[in-house]
Amino acid sequence: MNDMKSLRKKIDRLDRLIVKLLNRRAQYADEIGKIKEKLGLDVYSPEREKQVIENVSRTNPGPLTDDAVRRLYERIIDESRRLERESAEERRTSIRPGKFRGLMMGGAFRLDGDDIFKGKNLFLLIASAMVALLIVLLLSFVVPYHSARGKGVVFSIPHGETADQVYRNLSNEGIISSRFIFRIAARLFSIDHKLKAGKYLFAGHYSDYYVMTIIASGKSNLIVHLTIPEGVTVREVAGICRREIGTDSTLFVREALGDSLAQALGIPSENLEGFLFPETYDLYYGTAPAEVIKRMTDEFKLFFNDSLKSRARELNYSVKQVVTLASIVEAEARIDSERPVIASVYYNRLRKHMPLEADPTIEYALGEHTRIYYKDLRIKSPYNTYEHYGLPPTPICNPGRKSILAALYPDTTRYLYFVANGKGGHRFSVTFSQHKEAIRKYRKAMMRE
C-alpha cells in the first residue's frame, strides 16, 4: 500500500510538471501571435497543425493511434490557440492599419528568420517539444496496450539478477514496449533496488506501468496448482513447495515443526506433522510459508469435521492419536482395500499391550526412507515402536482421507501381524507361527525373483 501511495505521488508530480509546462506554453502564445503577424502569417493555420500532427504520428514509436495523437496535440495547443487569437484581435483594434503598414514598411517590426530560433522563441519551441514528448511518453507508459494471448506470459526474475538484466529480458520477451523508457521510468520511481526475485504472470491487456509495479511489489500474480501427495512428511512438503512455488523450505520446516504455530492454528499436537492435509492448492508463486501452512491446516479442519471428532471419541482416541495411527497406515498401505485391515491390526495390538513394531516409524526416526536392518530396530528414539509401547509422539507423515477414515472405521479382525506378499499387498496372520510362515513364503518368493 505504501509503495502504491509513493508511485501515485510521483505520478502527481509528473502531472504537475506537465501542467506547468503547458501553462508556460500558453504564456508565450502572445509572442507567437506577434511573430506570425510580422511574418504575414495567419494566426491559425489548419494546414500547419495537420502537418505537425502527421509528423508526430509518423515518428510515434508506440501503439498510439492517429486519433490519440491528434487529441494529444490538440490538448497542448488548445489554450495557446485561444490566446493567440485574443492577442491578435487586441493588436488589430489598438493599431491603425495605416500605421501598422508603415511600421512594417519601415522595418520597425522586421524579424529575420534566424530570430525565430533565438531567446524566448527558442525556449518556446524547446518547451513545446518537451511537453509533447513527455505526454506521448507518459501515455505510452500507462496505457494498457499490451495484449498477451492465451494464458499469458510467465516472466521469471532469478535471485541475483541486476535491474538492467531484468529490463533487457522484459524487452527481449516483448513484455514491455521500450527498454529505454522503462529504465527511465524505473529510475524516476526508484524501483531499481526494489525488484524481487520470483515468477510473474502478464495476461490480457496491461501497461508498462503495471509491469513495473508488479515486479517491484514482489507479490507474484502467478497462480500455481500445488499438489501435496498422501504420505509425505513436513520436510518433503517443504521441498515440494520450494520447487513449485518458490517457498523458503528452511523457514517452512522451522515453522511447521515448531510448537508456536501449531498452537496458534489450534492444532492439538506438538507440531504440524500429520496436519498438512494432502490436496491440490491454488497458491500464488512465492507465498509465505506461514500462509501455505495455514491453508493446509485449514483444509484438514474442514475434513476432520464434528462427526469425525465424535467418532474418534467413540473409539476413546483423541484427534491427534487417530491422525498418528492413520499416518502409520498411510505409510504401510499400497492397496486401498487393505487400509481398514491394517488399521485393525494396530488397534488389536494396542488393546493387547503389544508394541506396534511398525517399520515406517523406524524410517521416520532415521530421517530417511531406507531399507531397515536389525540394528536399526534398536535406535534410541521415541518413534521406535519396537522398543516403545503405544503410538509414537506425533504422526510420522501427513495421511490422506482414506487412511484417516480407515483409522476411524477399521475392519473387525483378529489379525495381529502382517507382512508384504511381494505383489503390493500383505499377508495377514492371527498367530505368530502363521506370521513366520508368511515371512518364509515372502522370502522364498523374493529369492525366485
Q: What level of helicity do the residues show?
A: 55-70%
Spatial order of the strands forming the largest sheet: 1-2
Radius of gyration using CA atoms only: 39 Å
Tally of helical segments:
19
Uncertain stretches of 5 or more adjacent residues: 61-65, 95-113
What's the number of domains?
4
Strand content: 5-15%
What gross morphology would you assign? elongated
Based on the structure given, which CATH architecture of the largest domain is correct?
Up-down Bundle
Can you describe this structure in just a few lines?
With 449 residues, the chain is mainly alpha-helical. Helices cover 56% and strands 9% of the residues. It is built from 19 helices and six strands.
Helices, strands, pairings?
Elements: H1 2-27, H2 29-38, H3 46-59, H4 66-94, H5 97-106, H6 119-142, E1 146-157, H7 163-172, H8 179-188, E2 198-206, H9 208-217, E3 223-227, H10 234-245, H11 249-256, H12 259-264, E4 280-284, H13 289-303, H14 306-314, H15 319-332, H16 339-351, H17 359-366, H18 401-408, E5 417-420, E6 426-429, H19 432-448
Antiparallel strand pairs: 1-2, 3-4, 5-6
Helix pairs in contact: 1-4, 1-6, 2-4, 3-4, 4-6, 10-11, 15-16, 15-18, 16-18
What does it look like?
The structure is a single chain. The chain has 449 residues and is mostly helical. It has four domains: 2-142, Chorismate Mutase Domain, subunit A; 146-217, Dna Ligase, domain 1; 223-303, no CATH class; 306-415, no CATH class. Helices cover 56% and strands 9% of the residues. The protein has 19 helices and six strands. A two-stranded antiparallel sheet has the order 1-2. Strand 5 and strand 6 form a beta hairpin. Helix 1 runs parallel beside helix 4, helix 2 (29-38) crosses helix 4 (66-94) and helix 16 (339-351) packs across helix 18 (401-408).
